[in-house]
Amino acid sequence: MVIPKKGRRFGGNSSAQKAIMRNLAISLFENKKIKTTVPKARFLRSFVDKLITTAKKDNLAARRQCIKLLGNAGAVQKLFNEIAPGMYERSSGFTRTVKYKNRVGDGAELVIMELLIK
């Protein structure tokens, strides 16, 4: 297994990290609320903010870019039709993280991450 030397990595390599972030973002867009660990939530916040900022442009190029990053047309459709229109007055800060509890197995801090939609 390749061990990364710089920065945080979730999973073994960069493709595994991208898959984890993609799956967390899709779950967040579909359910509007997820439970995850603190480091993953911090990393996911910037990923989701970039996606929502791109979706607020609401053109074909932005839609294709979001499909390229997420790989799920259903989640992109929900992002463009439901989530982005509720965020037009916001320039940033599209998510909220609330401390939840520690995980039983390994004691990792869990947070609830939710979208701030009107």
3D architecture notes:
This protein has helices at 14-31, 38-55, 60-70, 73-83; strands at 33-37, 95-102, 109-115. The longest helix is centred in the N-terminal third of the chain and has 18 residues, at 14-31. A 3-stranded antiparallel beta sheet has the order 1-3-2. α3 (60-70) crosses α4 (73-83). β2 and β3 (109-115) form a beta hairpin. The relative contact order is 0.18. 49% of the residues lie in helices and 17% in strands. With 118 residues, the chain is α+β, with helices and mostly antiparallel strands.
Annotation keywords:
globular, three-stranded antiparallel sheet, 3 strands, 118 residues, alpha+beta, 4 helices, 50s Ribosomal Protein L17, Chain: A
